[in-house]
């Protein structure tokens, strides 16, 4: 069959260090792969092992009579699986031993892995025996979709119970209690706020469902409405609304930033709720709604409230209103004596204002001057504070040091942009860029070359032409997937598509499919290994879930921005790192459009190297900070795209960034043609936004400094991939 291609679906998309520690166990879990037209499942762990070993194992279990009543295929999967897993895991443990931490001796490592294997096998035996004992005639009658749904629900419930962290369990209890309080006291603003805050905290940690985020929005809106009523009541009675719980009077809301919610004045509580709701809207990429909420606080309560000014500026950046964002940032700089009140948000002010200035100096009153003055003052303060600290195991001091290093990193990025754009002093600019990346690397997880290489190889080994059975996959063409490498200018492509009346984006960088990839993988494996599992129906259900999630996302944006009048026919899912997930995309949506953005390698590599943010999607590791990791990651990306072109020829539509900006009308018409929708000639008439001013060939200013990177990239320094759309 394919001896090397054991199914690694259960750990392909787990990039965190905690999950990598479990790779040996995950490597042995249910190693299967769909290979035939009738959705049969063939074990890929050790297909050539002699029958005598498996027969002996079955005989030892006392199951010879039962095996006669089932098909050979099911007998192979269900009853011969465990001995094969043991053999496979031994090989995996030996292979992975080469990349284990050197702090463990080989004896300790092998003992630990052996104990993990035994524990896993024992648990599997117990679960299998329990299933046999509890099987009733009624359960045996359940086939097809009923059996499949029951198995999926049981698996999901068991996973949720065993994998949930204790702190998350505690958070769920707090949310349940807050829901109960709010239900019993719907007119109490404090109870509504408490529920909303808990849901917001969960949502920010990526554990909240879409429904819970919507629940948080409604709870915030209720709390704000109730607080406004109480505030108006005080105003009508002639009483002040800026009196705190301790009896003090706040002359400015900035005095209350660090206070607990309950101790704030009525004005402080109202603005705190509005800022939190705005942050929730921002996290949901409903930036217009976020701006509206922040503006209410600034216009109705305090126009100089720094938290609302900063958050509004951040949302304005996202929708391309750079001049308004620059005005807010400038007002914050005027209050720079109190900048320390913003804490960790301070570094985002530097990066945001730099973005505005890079676009146009006139967006900010005084240009670079006010920012440089603050940066130089803060640079001296941060360095002095870091120098005064000694090495300590105090967690609080460690967190403070990391925060200061983050701020110092942003200061260096500001100076890089200033010397790069304003003074054209490339030597000074490069010094600050090098120092900024050094700071970034010092506080981020190190790039794991071996793990990323193995992960990429696993994907290429699994997804071969025989992986996709005929007749499996949804007919839906709703999603349009945009993939590529870092800093590709996907915002421009998404905006072009979004200009069509029947196409809508769901937020640049937001991917429903990417958020569900682990659940998609697990459900396919579950259906493949479950007796009576129907892979075709599972895949169709998963595809429908993705489209439903995208529609829900669009509906939320529609309700908050009132952008569209009816649901679009196509929705754009933009996460560049989904280039690793093309195999699953094709399995669920064989007819959906996949657009791959191609760009001059040195342009994209230099753009990645000087980006301030950490890479999103695909990895929690920073690969942009040094040449070794950046070139390695880029090579893996190129190898992956070559693989998809080979195993799925013609499936992906390639678009060169340079062609897109040089021939906008022609590219726009070609994009609409490939979607199957009617042309709309007004699409290309809109001017390119500020994000299009991505400096092509900007790397040539630093060609001498980039020579080591160019040598590492080697032959892949040239990318001859052409636009595959018929552009007129």
In short:
The chain is mainly alpha-helical and 728 residues long.
Task: Tell me what you see in this structure.
With 728 residues, this protein is mainly alpha-helical. The chain has helices at residues 17-20, 23-28, 51-60, 64-67, 72-78, 81-97, 106-134, 137-141, 144-163, 166-184, 189-204, 210-236, 266-283, 287-300, 306-318, 322-334, 346-359, 369-388, 395-423, 426-442, 449-462, 490-498, 512-515, 517-529, 535-561, 582-588, 601-609, 627-647, 657-662, 664-675, 707-713, and strands at residues 32-34, 41-43, 479-483, 503-505, 570-574, 593-598, 653-656. 59% of the residues lie in helices and 4% in strands. It contains 31 helices and seven strands. The longest helix is centred in the N-terminal third of the chain and has 29 residues, at 106-134. The model is unreliable at 1-79, 92-107, 134-164, 616-620 and 686-694 (pLDDT under 50). The chain is globular, with a radius of gyration of 28 Å.
Determine the N-to-C terminus distance.
Answer: 46 Å
What is the overall silhouette? globular
Radius of gyration: 28 Å
Number of helices: 31
Beta content: under 5%
Low-confidence stretches: 1-79, 92-107, 134-164, 616-620, 686-694
Core attributes:
globular, mainly alpha, 5-stranded parallel beta sheet, single chain, 728 residues, 31 helices, 59% helix, two-stranded antiparallel ribbon, 7 strands
């Amino acid at each position: 069959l394919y001896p090397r291609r054991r199914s690694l679906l259960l750990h392909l998309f787990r990039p965190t260090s905690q999950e990598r520690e479990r790779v040996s166990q995950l490597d042995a879990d249910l190693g299967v792969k769909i290979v035939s037209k009738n959705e049969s499942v063939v074990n890929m762990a050790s297909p050539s092992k002699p029958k005598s070993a498996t027969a002996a194992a079955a005989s030892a279990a006392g199951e010879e009579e039962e095996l006669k009543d089932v098909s050979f295929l099911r007998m192979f999967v269900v009853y011969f699986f465990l001995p094969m897993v043991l053999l496979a895991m031994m090989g995996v443990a030996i292979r992975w031993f080469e990349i284990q931490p050197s702090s463990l001796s080989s004896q300790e490592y092998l003992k630990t892995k052996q104990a993990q294997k035994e524990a896993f096998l024992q648990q599997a035996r117990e679960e299998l025996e329990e299933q046999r004992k509890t099987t009733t005639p009624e359960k045996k009658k359940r086939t097809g979709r009923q059996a499949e749904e029951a198995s999926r629900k049981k698996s999901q419930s068991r996973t949720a119970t065993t994998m949930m962290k204790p702190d998350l369990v505690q958070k769920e209890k707090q949310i349940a209690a807050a829901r109960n309080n709010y239900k019993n006291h719907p007119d109490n603003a404090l109870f509504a706020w408490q529920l909303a805050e808990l849901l917001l905290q969960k949502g920010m940690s990526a554990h909240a469902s879409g429904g819970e985020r919507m629940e948080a929005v409604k709870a915030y809106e209720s709390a704000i409405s109730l607080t406004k009523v109480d505030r108006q009541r005080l105003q009508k009675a002639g009483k002040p609304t800026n009196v705190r719980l301790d009896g003090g009077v706040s002359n400015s809301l900035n005095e209350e930033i660090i206070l607990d919610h309950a101790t704030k004045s009525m004005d402080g509580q109202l603005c705190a709720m509005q800022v939190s709701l705005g942050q929730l809207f921002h996290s949901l990429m409903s930036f217009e709604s976020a701006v509206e909420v922040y503006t209410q606080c600034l216009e109705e309560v305090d126009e100089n409230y720094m938290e609302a000014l900063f958050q509004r500026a951040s949302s304005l950046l996202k929708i391309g209103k750079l001049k308004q964002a620059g005005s807010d940032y400038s007002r914050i700089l005027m209050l720079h004596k109190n900048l320390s009140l913003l804490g960790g948000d301070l570094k985002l002010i530097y990066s945001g204002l730099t973005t505005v200035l890079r676009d146009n100096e006139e967006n900010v009153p005084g240009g670079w001057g006010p920012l440089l003055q603050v940066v130089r003052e803060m640079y001296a303060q941060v360095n002095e504070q870091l120098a005064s600290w000694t090495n300590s195991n105090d967690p609080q001091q460690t967190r403070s040091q990391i925060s200061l290093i983050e701020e110092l990193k942003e200061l260096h990025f500001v100076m890089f942009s200033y010397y790069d754009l304003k003074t054209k002093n490339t030597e000074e600019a490069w010094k600050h860029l090098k120092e900024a990346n050094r700071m970034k690397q010092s506080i981020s997880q190190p790039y794991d070359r071996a793990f990323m290489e193995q992960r990429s190889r696993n994907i290429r080994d699994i997804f071969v032409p025989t992986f996709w059975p005929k007749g499996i996959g949804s007919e839906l063409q709703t999603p349009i997937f945009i993939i590529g490498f870092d800093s590709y200018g996907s915002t421009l492509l998404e905006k072009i598509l979004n200009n069509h009346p029947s196409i809508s984006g769901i937020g640049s960088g937001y991917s429903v499919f990417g958020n569900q990839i682990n659940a998609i993988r697990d459900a396919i494996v579950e259906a493949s290994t479950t007796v009576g599992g129907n892979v075709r129906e599972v895949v169709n259900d998963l595809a429908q879930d993705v489209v439903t999630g995208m529609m829900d996302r669009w509906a939320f944006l529609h309700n908050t921005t009132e952008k569209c009048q009816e649901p679009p026919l196509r929705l754009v899912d933009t996460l560049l790192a989904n280039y690793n997930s093309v195999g699953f995309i094709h399995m669920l949506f064989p007819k959906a459009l996949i657009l791959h953005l191609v760009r001059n390698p040195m342009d994209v590599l230099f753009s990645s190297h000087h980006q301030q943010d950490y890479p999103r999607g695909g990895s929690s590791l920073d690969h942009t900070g040094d040449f070794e990791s950046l070139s390695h990651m880029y090579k893996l990306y190129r190898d992956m795209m070559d693989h998809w072109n080979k195993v799925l020829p013609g499936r992906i539509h390639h678009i060169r960034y340079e062609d897109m900006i040089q021939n906008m009308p022609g590219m726009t018409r070609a994009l609409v043609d490939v979607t199957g929708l009617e042309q709309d000639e007004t699409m290309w008439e809109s001017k390119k936004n500020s994000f299009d001013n991505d400096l092509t060939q900007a790397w040539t200013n630093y060609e001498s400094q980039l020579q080591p990177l160019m040598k590492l990239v080697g032959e892949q320094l040239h990318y001859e991939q052409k636009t595959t759309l018929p552009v007129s």
